[in-house]
Amino acid sequence: MKKEIMPSILLSLSCLVLFCVIYPGIIWAVAQLAPGKGEGFTVTANGKKYYRNIGQKFTDDKYFWSRPSAVDYNAAGSGGSNKGPANPEFLKQVQDRVDTFMKHNPEANKALLPVDLVTASGSGLDPDLSVAGAMIQVARIARTRHLDATQINALIGKNTVHPLAGILGPEKVNVLTLNLALDHEMHP
């Protein structure tokens, strides 16, 4: 029995040093080489700092709305709702989101409403929206900002991120970047 105790203690101490000191140190060092030095992608606008890779809440009609969040866009509590597609509470929540969207976007075709505008992502912090999710909001934003829809469509095109190598991932738009561009290039 005494022969097994000392190797067990040494293995425990080795794992403690490896996984609590050396591994985090390596990850920290690699993060220092990344853009933002491991702090995420930040954007500063109007004296305020935003994280481009974390979903933001936009509810004003003059902005593109983000994908809904199950955690109210709180990055400290990332997570989904864990409710299945047949859950009555989930279905009511989605229907409420559809009704709210249609109230603010009466010109939109309800049948063409992209699912990412009424359902939360797995993390609840998705910063991106499908191009269709952005396009269906153009009429509302054009009406609210007194702009031509073609100007806003061009802004969406300019801010669209295309799939890697043309095949990996969907086309998407970062909602924060798009809304900041709206304010910067097309004043309210």
What does this 3D model show about the protein?
This protein folds into two domains: 1-39; 40-185, no CATH class. Helix content is 43%, strand content 9%. It contains six helices and five strands. A three-stranded antiparallel β-sheet has the order 3-5-4. A two-stranded antiparallel sheet has the order 1-2. It is elongated, with a radius of gyration of 22 Å.
Characteristic terms for this protein:
mainly alpha, 3-stranded antiparallel β-sheet
Quick structural gist:
The chain has helices at residues 2-31, 88-104, 131-135, 138-145, 149-158, 175-185, and strands spanning 42-45, 48-51, 128-130, 160-161, 172-174.
Net shape: elongated
Quaternary structure of the protein: single chain
Structural class of the helix and strand makeup?
mainly alpha
Order of helices and strands: HEEHEHHHEEH
Helix coverage percent: 40-55%
Q: What Rg do the Cα atoms give?
A: 22 Å
| Largest beta sheet: strand ordering | 3-5-4
Question: Which regions are unreliable across 5 or more consecutive residues at pLDDT < 50?
Answer: none
Number of separate strands: 5
Strand content: 5-15%
Number of helices: 6
Kindly give the count of domains: 2
